[in-house]
Design a protein that fits this description.
With 222 residues, this protein is α+β, with helices and mostly antiparallel strands. Helices cover 45% and strands 20% of the residues. Helix 1 packs across helix 2 and helix 4 packs across helix 6.
Length: 222
């Protein structure tokens, strides 16, 4: 949706109330008024769509494993998962949706630890996972696997969601499920790799097999 500047005459008391609510919601006056009007007219703006996706994501995570925290605004969420490994580090998944871009959003994966051995191990996993994912997803048109790996951190761009036959997906609940499914899968892959870290060849093979099984049942590709 395109945006333009309009001049409106509004009651001062209403504007003060709007500004107060916008401040509490960490958004702007214009964005809040735009949202209120869209909801009144039963229209879906990009911001409403992002908020709906984020509100639905939480239902696809096991709260005994993950801790979810909605970021400021409507387009972000922080997901934490403990790694059952020495020093008990935490894996952080940050999901950020983009309002208007060629991508749906981005997923940032970070691994907070000061232990160099763990950092190197995580970097090794991320490198091998990127290679595995690119190989498995190369068969699908319209999916461009863009990843940036920096030491023990990764940024993975989330493509506009597609069904395997190439059709696009617009249903916000399906998109939320696809994002959560990807984070859940990545979390399983990390933990599987670390469980078998003493044998790197076996660890890589297990993650590759896990991805192969995922492709067989995958509904929506990001």
């Amino acid at each position: 949706m395109s945006k333009s500047v309009y001049s409106l005459v509004l009651t001062d008391e209403i504007v003060r109330a709007i500004d107060s609510l916008a401040y509490r919601m960490n958004t702007s006056r214009s964005a809040l008024i735009d949202r209120i009007l869209a909801e009144k007219l039963s229209m879906q703006t990009p911001e409403i769509r992002m908020r709906n996706i984020m509100e639905n994501i939480g239902s696809f995570f096991d709260d005994e494993i993950f801790r979810l925290q909605t970021a400021a605004g409507d387009g972000g969420m922080l997901i934490k998962s403990p790694l059952p490994y020495k020093y008990k580090p935490t894996i952080r998944y940050s999901v950020e949706l983009l309002r208007e871009d060629r991508y749906l959003g981005r997923l940032k994966v970070s691994f907070r630890t000061q232990n160099m051995a763990l950092m190197e191990l995580m970097n090794d996993f991320l490198t091998c996972f990127a290679n595995i994912e690119r190989r498995h997803l190369s068969r699908f048109d319209g999916i461009d696997v863009v990843m940036q790996i920096d030491n023990d951190k990764m940024v993975r761009m989330l493509n506009k969601p597609l069904i395997k036959d190439g059709r696009s997906v617009s249903d916000t609940n399906l998109i939320a499920e696809a994002i959560a499914d990807y984070v859940n899968f990545l979390d399983r892959a990390i933990k599987l790799y670390f469980e078998n870290a003493d044998n790197r060849k076996q660890a890589v093979s297990l993650v590759d097999s896990l991805y192969n099984e995922r492709i067989k049942t995958l509904k929506v590709i990001l």
